[in-house]
Amino acid sequence: MVDRLLALPQAFVHGELYPANVLVERAEEGPARIAPVDWELAGTGPYALDLAALASGWSGEDRLAICRAFHRQLPPGGRPALAELMAAVDLCRLALALQWIGWSADWVAPEAQRHDWRGEAGGLLKAVVG
Q1: Is 116 helix (H, G, I), strand (E, B) or coil?
Q2: Secondary structure letter of residue 2 according to DSSP
């Protein structure tokens, strides 16, 4: 799994771009202001890592819609096939799930941010590893 993560194209990533780390200020006129916060894990990593975090916790349909919207914004010359992007996102989702499972057993996420990482990892193991 680590070899597959390292083989993915690398990019500057936030590291924890979960919805809870994105502030949105709606404007009465003009576009909303969007500000990612909590940057202490930022660095170089698999390009799909932030997309995987941002789409975590969403239903399969919603996650696919988020990934399709991201895919459409990539430059046409460097855009992977959607299936390739989805495979990279699933691999990164598995890595994130394993990371959360490994974190301190003493820490409990706030109610609004809780997620079944073990269940997600179990489902992804079948899809990613086979």
Answers
A1: coil
A2: H
- For residue range 34-82, list pLDDT tens digits in order: 999 999 999 999 999 999 999 987 888 999 999 999 999 999 888 999 9
Q: What does the alpha-carbon distance between residue 111 and residue 130 come to, in Å, rounded to a whole number?
A: 32
Provide the token pair at 26.
């709606």
Question: What's the whole-model pTM score?
Answer: 0.85
Non-local (6+) Cβ contacts of 42 within 8 A are 12, 13, 14, 15
pLDDT at 14: 97
For residue 98, the Cα-to-chain-centroid distance in whole angstroms is: 13
Cβ contacts of 40 within 8 Å, gap of 6 or more: 15
Joined together, the tokens standing for residue 128 give 């990613």
Rounded CA-CA distance 117/115 in Å is 6
Phi then psi for 43, rounded to 5 degrees?
170, -160
Residue 28 in tokens = 């009465």
Return the structure tokens found at 14: 């936030």
